[in-house]
């Protein structure tokens, strides 16, 4: 086996296990939220970003990530939610938008086609969390519910990125 093939397989394994230390670039995209507002995610950006992708099942694991991240960092980082809604029939999209508006006060980008989720190697039925530096490089990835150990690792990664970027807002 060639060394490059071995390294590619190893990086793929580490990436899928949520243990990747390899830096990969994020992809720019635009999606509308439940209120019909268009959100553009592009890099470079002024802040560290946490991209959170989930389908209906994975959304049940989001609270274990989002609440601690928001409590610790507030507005010092951008937490960007993307709901994977591929397969929702066109006639039901207004109903889904209304349900999101009723249950969530913060904007969630709606990925009706699943294209954005697929581009970020979304794993079904799990919360998918990606920590992006201000240049848009994916610095950390985890799929699943947050545990104290994994959340601690995530905090250390974000703290390290904040320490090397612009001063933190309070």
Write the layout of secondary structure elements.
Blueprint: H1 3-16, E1 24-25, E2 29-32, E3 38-41, E4 48-54, H2 63-73, E5 77-84, H3 93-103, E6 109-111, H4 115-119, E7 128-132, E8 137-143, H5 148-164
Parallel strand pairs: 4-5, 5-6
Antiparallel strand pairs: 1-8, 2-3, 4-7, 7-8
Structure description:
By secondary structure, the chain is an alpha/beta fold. It has one domain (21-164): Glutaredoxin. 34% of the residues lie in helices and 24% in strands. The protein has 5 helices and 8 strands; from the N terminus they run αββββαβαβαββα. The protein has helices at 3-16, 63-73, 93-103, 115-119, 148-164, and strands spanning 24-25, 29-32, 38-41, 48-54, 77-84, 109-111, 128-132, 137-143. The strands form 2 sheets. Strands 1-8-7-4-5-6 form a 6-stranded mixed β-sheet. Strand 7 and strand 8 form a beta hairpin. The chain is globular. The N and C termini lie far apart (51 Å). 29% of the residues are buried.
Order of helices and strands: HEEEEHEHEHEEH
Major sheet: order of its strands? 1-8-7-4-5-6
What is the percentage of strand-forming residues? 15-25%
Per DSSP E runs of 2 or more residues, the count of β-strands stands at 8
Per CATH, the superfamily is Glutaredoxin
**What oligomeric state is this?**
single chain
Query: How far apart are the termini?
Result: 51 Å
CATH topology: Glutaredoxin
| Helix content class | 25-40%
How many domain modules? 1
Radius of gyration: 16 Å
Question: Structural class, from helix and strand content?
Answer: alpha/beta
CATH class: Alpha Beta
Unreliable residue runs: 1-22
Categorize the overall geometry.
globular
Mean model confidence by pLDDT: 87
Tally of alpha and pi helices: 5
């Amino acid at each position: 086996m060639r060394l490059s093939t071995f390294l590619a397989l190893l990086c793929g394994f580490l990436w899928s296990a949520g243990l990747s230390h390899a830096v990969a670039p994020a992809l720019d995209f635009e999606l509308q939220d439940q209120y019909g507002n268009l959100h553009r995610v592009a890099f470079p950006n002024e802040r560290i970003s946490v991209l959170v992708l989930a389908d209906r099942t994975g959304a049940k694991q989001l609270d274990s990530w989002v609440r601690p991240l928001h409590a610790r960092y507030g507005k010092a980082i951008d937490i960007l939610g993307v709901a994977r809604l591929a397969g929702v029939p066109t006639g039901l999209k207004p109903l889904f938008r209304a349900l999101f508006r009723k249950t969530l006060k913060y904007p969630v980008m709606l990925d009706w086609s699943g294209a954005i989720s697929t581009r970020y190697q979304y794993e079904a039925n799990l919360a998918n969390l990606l920590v992006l530096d201000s240049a848009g490089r994916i610095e950390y990835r985890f799929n699943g519910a947050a545990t104290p150990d994994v959340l601690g690792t995530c905090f250390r990664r974000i703290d390290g990125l904040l320490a090397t970027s612009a001063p933190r807002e309070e």
